[in-house]
């Protein structure tokens, strides 16, 4: 996991990453949504938030950067998107 590249969606307006929140509670730690390929990230946002698609950009992240990124932004783990159309997401916490 730490030796490969992943892709994330980042809001152009405020720089926030796309994250899943387990509850409606804003204080709950979210899960950073990760994609295996840039086209999967674009497919996801076009399928599930088409009117907002132009407000996101796709960025690559190295697996070795994940722990630092999660810590800096206060995420509780990652949501690895397996199928962007369904969506099928595998949630993982990193220690």
What does this structure look like?
The structure is a single chain. The strands form 2 sheets. The protein has a 4-stranded mixed sheet with strand order 2-3-5-6. The protein has helices spanning 38-48, 66-73; strands spanning 5-11, 19-20, 31-34, 56-62, 77-83, 88-92. A hairpin with a 4-residue loop joins strand 5 and strand 6 (88-92). With 95 residues, it is α+β, with helices and mostly antiparallel strands. It is 20% helix and 34% strand. The chain has 2 helices and 6 strands.
Number of strands: 6
The 3D shape can be described as globular
Q: What is the H-and-E element order? A: EEEHEHEE
Order of strands across the biggest sheet? 2-3-5-6
Distance between the termini: 13 Å
Quick check: average pLDDT?
90
Report the radius of gyration as a whole number of Å. Answer: 12 Å
Q: Give the helix/strand class.
A: alpha+beta
Helix content: 10-25%
Enumerate how many helices there are, as a single number: 2
Biggest pleated sheet: 4 strands, mixed
Could you tell me the strand content as a percent range?
25-35%
- Stretches where pLDDT is under 50 for at least 5 consecutive residues are none
Salient structural properties:
95 residues, alpha+beta, four-stranded mixed beta sheet, 2 helices, 20% helix
Summarize the structure.
It contains 2 helices and 6 strands; from the N terminus they run βββαβαββ. The chain is α+β, with helices and mostly antiparallel strands and 95 residues long.
Topology:
Blueprint: E1 5-11, E2 19-20, E3 31-34, H1 38-48, E4 56-62, H2 66-73, E5 77-83, E6 88-92
